[in-house]
Amino acid sequence: MNATVTAAAIGVGGSVIVALAAFWANVRNTNKSTELTHRALQLTEQGQVTDQYTKAVGQLGSDKAPVRLGALYALERFAQDNPAHRQTTVNVICAYLRMPFSPTAPASEPVPEPGEGAQQPAAGADIPALAGNGDTWQQEKQVRLTAQRVLSEHLRRTPPQTQPSADPAVDRFWPGIRLDLTGATLTDFSLSGAVLAEAMFDGATFTGDATFDGATFTGDAWFGEATFTGGVWFDGATFTGDARFGETTFTGGVWFDGATFTGDAWFNTATFTSAAWFNRATFTSGAWFNTATFTGDAWFNTATFTSAAVFGEATFTSGARFGEATFTSGKEAASFDGSHVLAPDAHHVWPEGWCTGETGDGEHTVVRVSSSPGS
Hints:
Elements: H1 2-60, H2 65-81, H3 86-97, H4 127-131, H5 136-154, E1 178-180, E2 185-187, E3 195-196, E4 198-200, E5 205-207, E6 210-211, E7 216-217, E8 221-222, E9 227-228, E10 232-233, E11 238-239, E12 243-244, E13 249-250, E14 254-255, E15 260-261, E16 265-266, E17 271-272, E18 276-277, E19 282-283, E20 287-288, E21 293-294, E22 298-299, E23 304-305, E24 309-310, E25 315-316, E26 320-321, E27 326-327, E28 334-335, E29 340-341, E30 354-358, E31 364-368
Parallel strand pairs: 1-4, 2-5, 3-7, 4-8, 5-9, 6-10, 7-11, 8-12, 9-13, 10-14, 11-15, 12-16, 13-17, 14-18, 15-19, 16-20, 17-21, 18-22, 19-23, 20-24, 21-25, 22-26, 23-27, 24-28, 25-29
Antiparallel strand pairs: 30-31
Helix pairs in contact: 1-2, 2-3, 2-5, 3-5
């Protein structure tokens, strides 16, 4: 009996083993088939994505402005639906804006009245009107304004109370984006409230006003040798990395009121043709204004300098005001060596321990109170 049971058990066990082996073989084949099917679907989707992207990029090179405009809207939709491709899409749009463009219309083409056409167009609404406009410069301007709008709209974090849906898939904010607009010509450019990982605007030309108020630069922000022809607003902006404005030209007024510079702030050889406001600004690292030129009033009231504040060889043509400025590393952290004060009788409020003094050759500079009685 035991032998019979044993034999039966062996037989059953063998059957079970064979059955299990067959089962797992089937599972492996099924999984492999499913994997292959999933991979095929991925490749198909990737192919469709590639086709959409390639087609839109190709249209962006069209000689017809309405086609270029449609390409921008297609790229915007593509990037919104495909987060992994957003940076690449932004790179393409930035490359388009870096292409040469005259900030003024050719003499042979009509010039719009002040303020006309400066607004950034709403998505899609301008294509029919653009098709009937034979002014090639104006057409290209509208295309470029649309490219700027795409960037500004998607780099601005949507406040929760204005979010149209709780679904994060419809959030229009694109996080972690880097901008490279080196040498670009930008018109009435706005990144108010934007959040950027990195921004490169070296050598860019900003025509009209430029607004960066409340913007956050989580990486370095490069504006070296840029030219601003209108008003510039950086009030309340946050620079987490280095902020470089070396050799930058500000033709209109510039506001950095309440801005926070966590990294080094470089304004060496910058030119401020009109008034410059840095009231309540906070410089956590070094603030460098060597050889900067302030043609209008320079306002640094209640600014806070945690590290060095260097204005060596800076030129102050009008009034300079540092009322209640704070130097947390000590008064010696401030430096005005070799500075030029072209209007010694203007209303100046220098940091504590400094005053206007003569250089000995009829010129005036900013000197320490201990070394000169000042004026």
